[in-house]
Amino acid sequence: MCIETSNYKNITYYTCSAYTKVPCGTLCKSGHRIKAEVLLNLIQSTLQDIKESLNEDNEAFLHSIQNEMEESEKMEMEKKKTRLTDSKNRLQELERLMCRIYEDMILEKIPNTRYEILNNQYETEQRELSKEIDGLEKSIKRYEKETDRAMKFIRLIERYDNFDELTPTIINEFVEKILVHERDRKGSQTANQKVEIYFNFICNYEPPKEELSEEEMQKLREEEEKERERKDRLHQNYLKRKANGKQKEYEDRYKEKREQLKQEKLKTLKKSGIPLSEYKELMKKEA
């Protein structure tokens, strides 16, 4: 998804694909999103950290990744098996529902138009579930067959000296999937947002971090608590302004001012003879 701002800059977002699955909101309750730039930077920094850990101590890295995989993969496979069972049960339920509405249509309990709508919805969900079931079964079989995934990942990452530039080829080679969760506080731009990166061969692996002392941990907890309290205050103030109408007044003033600036830019463009389309392209490149 791409959003154009008031100065014609395009900001690309990745949106939740599970939210739009039929029925909408079943697999995920909210249609959240994350900036593409933020997500790509996170992938890049994670790969750089893994590469650094590998260069420092190959054996220790291999041992660490195998231990991590043993736990994470086991949990991931359990989730996939549970999802596979649920999907198969839902597929059978859809078949029964389709038979039922067909009988209701024949017996004139529901009109033909209603039958067509329901039947199309069920068929769409059937196709998506069948595709998902096929993917889950292949993933489970692949997990049961492969035993040297850690070494495969190491051989893959050793092909790259660094990850200063993240290309589509690198992303396809390394990333299996990415789970982006809803923000801790929905609607807040400064709230924390959990992101899980699943790499090919090693699943949701995170490189080991330097252990902190008890004093450092306590200091970190205190700083996090202060930051959380600050965000809470800001959010509560926002809710108060929204309730008493002050927020809308501010947004209306800002919107009016922004529109004035936009019109002034357009007038300047007309005087200088620069087409609006060229200006938009220029702003996109600068973004």
UniProtKB/TrEMBL annotation:
Q: What is this protein called?
A: DUF4368 domain-containing protein
Keyword vocabulary terms for this entry: Coiled coil
Entry keyword annotation includes Glycoprotein: no
Presence of keyword Secreted: no
The DUF4368 domain covers 140-205
Q: Which Pfam family, giving just one, matches this sequence?
A: DUF4368
Q: Which species is the source of this protein? A: Peptoanaerobacter stomatis
- Which portions of this protein are annotated as coiled-coil regions? 65-146
Tell me where on the tree of life, at the top rank, the source sits.
Bacteria
Region called Disordered, residue ranges: 212-256
InterPro entries reported in the protein's UniProt record: DUF4368 (IPR025378)
Q: Where is the composition biased (Basic and acidic residues)?
A: 212-235, 246-256
